C-alpha cells in the first residue's frame, strides 16, 4: 500500500514537472549555415563562385572581397562563432570578425577591437574561432569575412 | 511521516521528469523559409526576381542555385540526423525545375540525398519536390541545389528532422 502511494505521488509530480517544463522555451544549442549564404557588395558579387555550399573568390583580377553572413539568433547574450574556411597561403587567406547591432542599428559591438581573425593554417579546412561576441536583446548578429582571391568560406557554426 | 513521504516522492518524480526531459533535444522539428532566403547566386543574380521572399528565374536560360538551410546543429546527432526537404515549384515545362539535397561536412566531404546526387524533377505547373534521407554531419551544412529553367518559380522550402530512414 505504502509503495503504491509512493508510485502514484511520484507519477503526479513527474507529470506536473513535465507540464511546467513545457512552458519553458527550448533553445537550440548550436546552429549551422553554409558559407554560400554570405552576401558580397554588388560590385564584387561576380568574384564568387558558389559550390557545394561554399563561397569561393575565384575570378582573376578580383581584390579581397568582404562577405557578410547573417546569423539567426534566438536571444541576446554572448555568442561564440566558428567559421570554417580554406586559404592557400597568407596572401590568399580569410579573416573574419563578428558584428552585432542593437535593434535600431545605431550601435555596433565587436570583439577584439573589431580586428579580423585570420586563418592559422593553409591548404585545408581550418576553423576561425571568434568567442565572446555580445548581442544585445533584440539585436542582430553577422559575421564579416574578408576573402582573398583563391580563398573559400565553407560553413559557419554558432550558438544562437 | 506524511511530509517525508512527499519529499521522497518529489525527489523521485523530479528525477524521473528530468530524465525524460533530457531525452528531448533542444531543437525545432521543422522550419519553413521562402526560396530567396539566404540566396546568393553571383553568376545568376540578374536572373533572380524576388517576390514575397520567393523568386522567379526571369532569364531565358536555366540557372543553378544553392539554397542554404539554417540547421540546429544539435539535431545532427542520431536519431535526428536525417532531414527531409520539400521545395515548392512552378515550372513552365515538365522537368523545368530539378533539385537535389547536398550534405557537406566541415571537412568538405559531400553526400547527397536518397537520390544519390541525381536531380528530382518537377512536372509543369504547381508542384513540390521532396528530397529524402539527407544525412547531416556534426557541424556540417546542408544546401539544396536546384536547376531552375526559364521563367520557373522556386517557392517555399520546408525541412524537418526525421528520426528514422523509412523513406517511401
Task: Give a written overview of the molecule.
The complex is a heterodimer of chains A (160) and B (168). Chain A has one helix and eleven strands, in the order αβββββββββββ. Chain A has one helix spanning 2-22; strands spanning 31-34, 48-51, 54-57, 65-71, 77-86, 94-101, 108-109, 117-118, 126-135, 140-147, 152-158. In chain A, strands 1, 2, 3, 5, 9 and 11 form a six-stranded antiparallel β-sheet that branches. In chain A, strands 4, 6, 7, 8 and 10 form a five-stranded antiparallel β-sheet that branches. The longest helix of chain A is centred in the N-terminal third of the chain and has 21 residues, at 2-22. Chain A is elongated and about 80 Å long. Chain B contains one helix and twelve strands; from the N terminus they run H-E-E-E-E-E-E-E-E-E-E-E-E. Residues 18-25 of chain B have low confidence and may be disordered. With 168 residues, chain B is mainly beta. In chain B, the strands form two sheets. In chain B, strands 1, 2, 3, 6, 10 and 12 form a six-stranded antiparallel β-sheet that branches. In chain B, strands 4, 7, 8, 9 and 11 form a five-stranded antiparallel β-sheet that branches. The interface between A and B is large, with 48 and 43 residues.
Q: Report the strand count of chain A.
A: 11
Indicate the percent of residues in helices of chain B: 10-25%
| Oligomer classification | heterodimer
Number of helices of chain B: 1
Major sheet summary line of chain B: 6 strands, antiparallel
- Rg from Cα of chain A: 22 Å
Distance between the termini of chain B: 57 Å
Strand portion of chain A, in percent? 35-45%
Give a count of the beta strands of chain B, DSSP E runs of length 2 or more: 12
Mean pLDDT of chain A: 88
Percentage of residues in strands of chain B: 35-45%
The percentage helix of chain A is: 10-25%
Query: In whole angstroms, how far apart are the ends of chain A?
Result: 49 Å
Q: What is the approximate shape of chain B? A: elongated
